[in-house]
Every structure is written in C-alpha cells, then in structure tokens.
Amino acid sequence: MDSKLNEAFSSWFDTQLSGQEKEQVLIRHFGYFQEDFVYRLTEIIEKRLLELKFSYSVARKVFASVSEAISNINKHGKSTALDVGGLIVCVKEDKITVSVSNIIPVSGRISLSSKIDELNELNKEELSSRFHELMKRSIVSNTTGFGIGFVSIRLNCDTPLKYSFKPLEAGHLIFSMEFEV
C-alpha cells in the first residue's frame, strides 16, 4: 500500500511545476529528508538567495521556514515507513515562494485546516505573542508539538499560508502548503 501512495504522491508532485515557467526554481526535491541532507539543502537555499542579492534577513527567514516545514514533513508524515515529502523553492522578481507537501491521514485534515486558518487571521503582533507563549510552554513542559513550527513559518511570511488537500486512497491525503517570503 505504501508504494501505491508514494507513486500517486510522486505523480502529483511532478505536475506541481506547471505554470511556474517564469519563476526561477532554486530547489526541487521529492523523497526523504534525512537530517544531514536537510542541513545541506537549507544551506544551499541560503547561499543561492544571497547570490541573487536577497538580504541576509530574507535568506535567514527562508532558511528557518524551510527547516520548520521539512521538520513538519518528517514529524507528521503518514508513518516512519513513508516519510516522503516534496519541496519546491522558487524566486520570482523579489519574492521567494516555498511549497511543501506530504501524505497525511484523512483524520488530520480538520485539525490542520483550523490551525492554519487561525494563524492566517492573526496579525504580526498576535503571531509574535503566540510564538513566545508557545516557546515558554515548550521549555516548561520540555515538549515540542505545540505548533511552534507553523507559527514560526507564518511569522516569516509576507502573505497568509495557502494550503490544499488532494485525496489519495486508503484514507490518506496529500497536504500541500505554500508561503511567500
């Protein structure tokens, strides 16, 4: 079953660059995200953005957001047997667009949608306050999983997080999220 889900996900991912011909694709990756690979990948993204004359501040925001997004793929993927995901980073004019995707169980759709919708309604001040509160709770309870990653990504974005779900078989969905920095 995992190979069928992977094949369907891979096929969907291959279609995601259509319509982006005018954008400069910095990175496109589909597969596993092991820790050493993630570090090299985010380093390459940061280096290329600096070469394109983006500010260090913007490059760091993209670096941090991509790291958080990949961490979410690894943490919340369908299972440890299927921790595959997709990442596309594009540059168009003065904006960087990041698209991430992975497989999730259908049961996660409502929770994920409501969390992202709630974050999209907050202004920068409210997001910052939420981030600091979550950080305090995380330190006190010595746990992660309070949604710090999504809040961090949203703080770094110029626009609301866009997301979608595509049905797969066997009670799973492709979750796709896009954001701009």
CATH superfamily: Histidine kinase-like ATPase, C-terminal domain
> How many discrete domains?
1
Q: So how many helices?
A: 6
Low-confidence stretches: 140-144
CATH fold node name: Heat Shock Protein 90
Structure summary, number of beta strands: 5
The CATH architecture assignment turns out to be 2-Layer Sandwich
Gyration radius (Cα, Å) is: 16 Å
Name the CATH class.
Alpha Beta
The SSE string, one letter per element, is HEHHEEHHHEE
Distance between the terminal alpha carbons, to the nearest Å? 37 Å
How does the overall form come out from the CA principal axes? globular
Instruction: Describe the strand arrangement of the main beta sheet, using strand numbers.
Output: 1-2-3-5-4
The biggest beta sheet is recorded as: 5 strands, antiparallel
Structural class: alpha+beta
Helix content: 40-55%
Nearest-integer average pLDDT: 83
As a percent range, the share of strand residues is 15-25%
Strand and helix layout:
Blueprint: H1 2-14, E1 24-32, H2 35-51, H3 56-76, E2 84-92, E3 95-105, H4 109-121, H5 124-141, H6 148-156, E4 162-167, E5 172-180
Helix pairs in contact: 2-3, 3-6, 5-6
